[in-house]
Write a structure and sequence with these properties.
Distance between the termini: 37 Å
Radius of gyration: 17 Å
Shape: globular
Strand content: 15-25%
Number of domains: 1
CATH topology: Rossmann fold
Largest sheet: 8 strands, mixed
Oligomer: single chain
Mean pLDDT: 94
Length: 237
């Protein structure tokens, strides 16, 4: 594995050129195991738990898939969209406005450098975006910002690539993921995804994520789905 990770500017350019793929709700995240299932879980659970929610922040919103699905269940939501890529934000805006949803604010920034407002959001979602954070201190800082941005009893919903504490389990899980990618398309696709992870991503362990959220102050933290090197969780303030 290479120690080199691409810069934020390189990452931004990479996503600027990949808008159309991420605009497809069905195929935009096929490299993530159970992506469609997690999207369905999020929209269903959030709608059941927060039927009167007023504001949602979508971190790393991409082309808007999660915001679209959740807001179809809760059309009263006022949305804040945050992403590194301006073309992604523009596409998310177009798709959400086409369904007459309410966009309150659009923020183009690196989440590691963002200053979120205090006690504003009922719901914060981060789907397949935080694995681009580079250090554990970055993770702690971002989780702290998310916690402060939530109203009392608001919740944070995260799905992402993860790694495992045990080295042997990590190797075996990566082998399973390689098989998944190969079966999804072919050997060259599997190689492409692994090379992308190697140069672009810095996933963390569930143990670190959960303990950090607890240290910050979240009182209810639940793993709501895990399969292979991907997991989804919810944390309530």
């Amino acid at each position: 594995m290479s120690d080199y990770k691409i810069s934020i500017d390189e990452l931004r350019c990479q996503f600027d050129m990949d808008v159309e793929r991420f605009s497809n709700e069905q195929t935009g995240q096929t490299s993530a195991v159970d992506a469609q299932l997690v999207l369905s879980i999020f929209e269903t659970f959030i709608a059941k738990m927060y039927p009167d929610a007023q504001r949602l922040l979508d971190i790393g919103c991409g082309a808007g898939n999660f915001s679209l699905r959740i807001t179809r269940k809760l059309p009263q939501l006022k949305l804040t969209l945050l992403d590194l890529s301006q073309p992604m934000l523009q596409k998310a805006k177009e798709r959400l406005l086409a369904e007459n949803f309410n966009i309150e604010e659009i923020i183009q920034t690196d989440i590691a450098k963002a200053k979120l407002p205090d006690a504003k959001f009922d719901i914060v979602v981060a789907a397949a975006s935080l694995h681009h954070l580079r250090t554990r201190q970055d993770w702690k800082n971002v989780f702290g910002q998310i916690y402060r941005s939530l109203i009392p009893h608001g919740s944070f919903w995260m799905s992402d690539l993860i790694r495992h504490e045990n080295e042997t389990i990590e190797i075996l899980q990566k082998e399973r993921y390689a098989e998944y990618l190969h079966n999804l398309k072919d050997q060259s696709y599997q190689k492409q995804i692994f090379e992308s992870i190697d140069r672009s991503d810095t996933p963390e362990t569930l143990q670190f994520i959960i303990s950090t959220l607890a240290d910050i102050g979240f009182v209810q933290i639940d793993i709501i789905h895990k399969n292979n090197v991907f997991a989804a969780l919810a944390a309530v303030k």
